[in-house]
Amino acid sequence: CEGSSGLYFPQSTYSETIYVGQPAGAPVLQVHSMRERPSEEPYFCLSWRNIQKPPLYAAWFHLDPLTGVLYMNKTLEWTDFDSLSSSTLGYTRKLTLKVAAAPVSQKATCIHHSRVDVSLTFINATAPSCGQKMEKLCFPDGDISSHIKENRLPGALRQLRRFTHADICPNYTISYRVEADSPVPFAVNNATSELVVTAPVDREEKELYRLIIVCNVRTADMLHRLDTPLLINIYDEDDTAPYVNGTDSEDVLIEFSRSEGTVFGHVFVYDRDTTPSYPKDQTENKFVGTLMTNDSWIKDTFTILHGFREEKAMFGNVRGTVHEYKLSLSRNVLVDERRSVQLDYLVNDTTYPGTEGTVMLHFNITILPVPIQFSNITYIFVLSRKSSIYSQIGKVCVDNCLKFKGIDIVYQLEISDRNVSSDVLSCYTTVNVARSLEEMSGVLYVNDTKPFYRPECQELQYVLVAQEQQKQLQTKTHLLIIFDGEAEVLRAERPRSLTCAEKRQRGECETFKGMGAPTGRCHWRQGTDKGISENYSTCSPDLRTCPDGYCDVIESKNMSICPQDCTRVPIIGGHERGLMLGIKAGYGTCYCYSEKCFCEQDEMEEPICDDMCKTIIATAV
Amino acid sequence: GREELVKGQGRGCLLKEIHLNVTDLGLGYRTKEELIFRYCSGPCYDAETNYDKILNNLTHNKKLDKDSPSRTCCRPIAFDDDLSFLDDDLEYHTLKKHSAKKCACV
């Protein structure tokens, strides 16, 4: 039955100080409970953490059940302070009380209703005498913020007087009033010194009221004025319906991107209410969506993604919620699928009390089939006989393959004329094709260099076959490889390593025949930047692909081709590692022995003769 | 310190330390951070064996052509913990096996 009423405390905690000698019957503080309905006259009671066994000091206090004023039940003695056990020594003790509020009709069960903490600091001294700081007479120490809920009844909100300080200076008259830049629904009841909210407030109009509480203290000869700021937060409830701004429908075209998880289009739904993220099980302003279809194909293929965020500017500088609905594929769509469907999605603001709390969204979806074909061309590549093994020759691609997502294509090479002699047939080991990892294209590369040395191998005619994997759709085209130039003379003794990346200087790099070099020679990249740079000096088989920060499908076939992009082991020297593999940036020259890479400044670098040096030489001459 | 030495081998080979800026390491990092760099230094004559004496004689008599095989030297046999630092572009770097922890004649 806890919290079954609309009563709530506009403060999260009440605190005050009490002193030795504070007399029985003296008021300490006053709590207030705000109401939802006029019938909910509040009834206050003291409550304890363990109701069976209240603490020793429970009997020191008395709470007026109708006004919420807490009184001393006894005069505090020095021995009372000593009777309180505390883990710490010192001149203060903290006394914690709880006050509950129930409607008068349920006063028997009061202690089970919503509660608020009251924290009293008991100081081991008598109350200070008159003549202390005026601030202490007017306002409590620390923050005095309050909160009220929107759309509720007006009423008293907070007691401004400090009861425990009121008797210290009996000859002073203390009065309060509210000041604000613009008219506010808050005022002070002069008879009781209570701050009162005079009318229901609307959070969608104003979330936070900044008041100035003015305290006037009239002494025998002067009038003192003291100010303190007071913030009143307005708490939200779900009192506005969701709406769309402009269109409630979105056209979606599904063509080349058809993989599971792809997201298309978005529709926004707005709600002027706030949506709390925490706690997780909060139901306030929660939106529930329903897919309005019985078609199992649609249900299995699409899901609606829902996200929300808080915005302020578009709601007149008051927080509101923007909900975003996106269409997502929950499985890969087949390449030959052709369909048009309309998907309706009902959004329901479940805690909105009216009947208008729903919005219907529409996704107009068109799915086009993707033809798997080569345009009417024959691929022709000229291949130098100087090329090294694993040199990349070029790329092949079915129409639009670079746009494909969720379409799986495998490329293969077949020999067009199988009736050729076995000598000629063995020429065809020269070239092979691999599927590139990041896009649906194929990469042609040199698989065998021995045919370069054989006169019968002049030109290779292949059939390039591309096969889509889900529906086994196949397409073919012709591929012609023409050999060019003379092959290098075969040396009897082959070098032990074929890695361009081993070479540390331009000269030895550019004369070396490394793996993966299309011209048969390694290439030098000269870095110009100082410090650790992505443009470090290095020796590479092909500067178009190595180093480019990406270990491609051919490079990953053999670690000796491009360890700069593909190394997995720790790098020695100043460097920045690549995201997964390789060197992102290096200091000076980076070189590698098999997979182990080093980056360092070349010691042989000659000092450059600067302007100063030139001047000296010129003068000397 | 001295107690770190492997007994009976290379009493002159010691762990020494120097306070440096990371930029002094010459690895190209731009940062204001500093470190204690420890290194191994000292003679290793007392750790030599017949093998080393023979090599010394052969080299001296020019019997090994131009070849000069390495002799016993004072090297780390264990390394300090990794060193992490923030560079001037607010990126983290970690140096591994950059500083000696234990030395020996090897």
Give structural notes:
The complex is a heterodimer of chains A (621) and B (106). Chain A is mainly beta. Chain A is 7% helix and 38% strand. Chain A has a 4-stranded mixed beta sheet with strand order 1-7-6-3. Chain A has a 4-stranded mixed beta sheet with strand order 8-14-13-10. Chain B has 106 residues and is mostly beta strands. Chain B is 10% helix and 34% strand. Chain B has a two-stranded antiparallel sheet. In chain B, strands 3-6 form a two-stranded antiparallel ribbon. In chain B, strand 4 (83-86) and strand 5 (92-95) form a beta hairpin. Chain B is elongated. The interface between A and B is small, with 11 and 8 residues.
The profile of the biggest β sheet of chain A is: 4 strands, mixed
Stretches of chain A where pLDDT is under 50 for at least 5 consecutive residues are none
User: Approximately how much helix is present in the residues of chain A?
Assistant: under 10%
CA-to-CA gap between the ends of chain B?
18 Å
Mean pLDDT level of chain B:
87
Number of discrete helical segments of chain A = 8
Distance between the termini of chain A: 105 Å
Quickly give the structural class of chain B. mainly beta
Series of secondary-structure elements of chain B, N-terminal to C-terminal: EEHEEEE
Tally of strands of chain A: 36
Our estimate of the beta-strand percent of chain A is: 35-45%
What's the alpha carbon Rg of chain B, rounded to whole Å? 18 Å
DSSP helix count of chain B? 1
Mean pLDDT of chain A: 89
Question: Any idea what the shape of chain B is?
Answer: elongated
User: In order across it, which strands form the biggest sheet of chain A?
Assistant: 1-7-6-3
The residue fraction in helices of chain B comes out at 10-25%
